[in-house]
Amino acid sequence: MRRGSLEYWPHRRAKKQMPRLRSWVELAEPSFANFVAFKTGMTHIGFTDDSNSPAKGTEIISAATVLEIPRVFIYGIRLYHKTVYKEPVDEVYDKQLAAKIGIKKTEKTNLDSVKKDTSKYVDAAALAFLDPSSLGFGMKKLMRFEMHVGGKSIDEKIAFIAGFLGKEVKITNFLKAGDYIDITGITKGKGWQGPVKRFGVARLYHKATGKTRHVGTLGPFHPPKVLYSVPMAGHMGYNYRTELNKRVMKVGSAASASEINPSGAFPHYGVVRNDYLIVKGSVSGTPKRMVRIRKALRSTYSEAQPQVKYVSLTAKQG
User: Fold this and answer.
1) CATH number of the 34-187+238-311 domain
2) Tens digits of per-residue pLDDT, 90-136?
3) pTM confidence score
4) SS3 readout for the chain
């Protein structure tokens, strides 16, 4: 009997450390629609249950994940026009930050000329880079990415991004405690695995073929080929995955990092030194792995402020 899902197929390994966002929520008010973070580790928190469960109004304990936020700077504005597809046509740079990441030609378009005639543009996005040197685990390379913004018109979007051009963006400019987010990350890599672990097929009877941890049949006699849906050995894990509707339980600053750092630090990571998030539940991937955050695309929950009473500081080494 075949088990395992064909929803994600083929099971290819991720090509880049930074996941790609293909969709995001369209916001009416000017605001950033996505951000970036690094997985720190897991802990448990106590908070007042505000759901409609039988435990409503009482304090409950839940597993939670800590995400550390690197320093993020806006170095430019990317402008799109409409052809068959939406394509980038112009970019406006902050000279100082653009030079920091190796962009030399920054005189192509200036902000004043863009604001004079915005009729040819259909969308605008912020060009950003993250500086991981303050995270404390050896990563130093500046990584560029695009931050989508909300707004009712193209003029509103350009004005919003221009206000952050050449400046650092904080996580508080993106979300608050109680918001629901979607998290895109890369799962743990498991290497080369057989069909029993990879797809959950049943082990064979010990007298069947002399082998137990392989597939009983590779398919019918015709068509005379092995179909793609037959479970076989191969690479497992290290795939892009998106989890929907993760609740933000706490948004903290670097000054309050001591309130969440456990005794002996987070295993395989260290201590939190920058702004951080506490998200209810688990997040895919290993510690030190980058994740992309976007505002929830399909959320139907009320974004009430959670009342976090307790964050575990006990050692996580076991």
Assistant:
1) 2.40.30.10
2) 899 999 999 999 888 877 778 888 888 888 899 999 999 999 998 98
3) 0.92
4) CCCCCCCCCCCCCCCCCCCCCCCCCCCCCCCECEEEEEEEEEEEEEEECCCCCCCCCCEEEEEEEEEECCEEEEEEEEEEEECCCEEEEEEEECHHHHHHCCCCCCCCCCHHHHHHCCCCCCEEEEEEEEEHHHCCCCCCCCEEEEEEECCCCHHHHHHHHHCCCCCEECHHHCCCCCCEEEEEEECCEEEEECHHHHHCCCCCCCCCCCCCCCCCCCCCCCCCCCCCCCCCCEEEECCEEEEEEEEEEEEECHHHHHHCCCCCCECCCECCCCCEEEEECCCCCCCCCEEEEEECCCCCCCCCCCCEEEECCCCCCC
